[in-house]
Structures are given as C-alpha cells and as structure tokens.
Amino acid sequence: TWNPGDDIGGDWSPDGSRIAFASERDGNREIYVMRADGTDVVRLTNNAAREGIRVAWSPDGSRIAFYGYLDGNAEIYVVNADGTNETRLTHHQARDRFPMWSPDGQQVGFTSGRDGDDEIYVMDADGMGLVRLTSSAGLDVLDSWRR
C-alpha cells in the first residue's frame, strides 16, 4: 500500500486474489479490500467509530469478520466481501475482539472479556450458540484454527 495512514491486520482471501485489511487512510480506521497486487482498493465500511485491527475472510470468500467500536465498545461484525449487509454478531458490554472463522465457515471464534478475563469463545456464524472455550489467567487469543 502507498498512503500516509496506517494499514494493518491484513488477511488473504481464500483464493489468494485479494487482501482485506483495516486502514486509517481516510482519517478513521475502516475495513478495505484490495487486489493482491495492491490495486483496486475498495472501502467496505464507513462508520464514525473505528474498526479493530483484525479482519478475517470466511473460508468461502463471501464475508469478512472484524471487530469495531460502532456501538461504544468492541463487538464482532461481519460484512459481505462487497461491503453490503454489515451485521453485528455480539452484544455484550465487554470487549469482543480478534475474530477468526472456523475452517468450515460455520463458526466464528473470538476473544472476550465478558467473564472478567480475556478468554476464547466460539459462536455460530449468525451470532448464536455462544460457547466459552478457555478459562485461564491472562489474554487468550485464537490465533489459528486448523482442521
């Protein structure tokens, strides 16, 4: 990328043709997609609040999960890869961050402080069926999800 704003948290599309990322290029951190060669940059979100630093493509390449502060605290959202149908998946006063898709695209894992400590949770891709996976001191972050 070539701009004065920070570009962070990139993730390759499953077919390797595009990269989703967060950027402050327009003065407020938003979610963008570009071709793998850096051309054809498209802004997907346009919110007054900033988006988080992690984005994650769904395995089928149709959606992108991210976290944002749109409602005052960090929540997990998904948006179609063309920028339509932005949907909030989590609804909690604690910070929900660092989303990652399951390999089959049926679930989204994330980190949340909803039980007093940052733990790993998983939910269905529609935001239902929440399950806590970890219970340990310190920050737990789902960094990789393999079959």
SSE topology sketch:
Elements: E1 7-12, E2 18-23, E3 30-35, E4 42-43, E5 51-57, E6 63-68, E7 75-80, E8 87-88, E9 96-101, E10 107-112, E11 119-124, E12 131-132
Antiparallel strand pairs: 1-2, 2-3, 3-4, 5-6, 6-7, 7-8, 9-10, 10-11, 11-12
Q: What are the salient characteristics of this protein?
A:
mainly beta; 12 strands
Q: What would your notes on this structure say?
A:
0% of the residues lie in helices and 41% in strands. With 147 residues, it is mainly β. The strands form 3 sheets. Strands 1-2-3-4 form a 4-stranded antiparallel sheet, with no helix packed on it. The chain has a 4-stranded antiparallel sheet with strand order 5-6-7-8, with no helix packed on it. A 4-stranded antiparallel sheet has the order 9-10-11-12, with no helix packed on it. The chain is globular and about 45 Å long. The chain starts with 6 loop residues before the first strand and ends in a 15-residue tail after the last strand.
Structural class: mainly beta
Largest sheet properties: 4 strands, antiparallel
Q: Order of strands side by side in the largest beta sheet?
A: 1-2-3-4
Topology as a string of helices (H) and strands (E)? EEEEEEEEEEEE
Distance between the termini: 32 Å
Low-pLDDT parts are: none
Give the overall silhouette. globular
| Backbone CA Rg | 15 Å
Instruction: Summarize model confidence as the mean pLDDT.
Output: 90
* Helical stretch tally: 0
DSSP strand count: 12
Beta fraction of the residues? Answer: 35-45%
Helix content: under 10%
Short description:
The protein is mainly beta and 147 residues long.
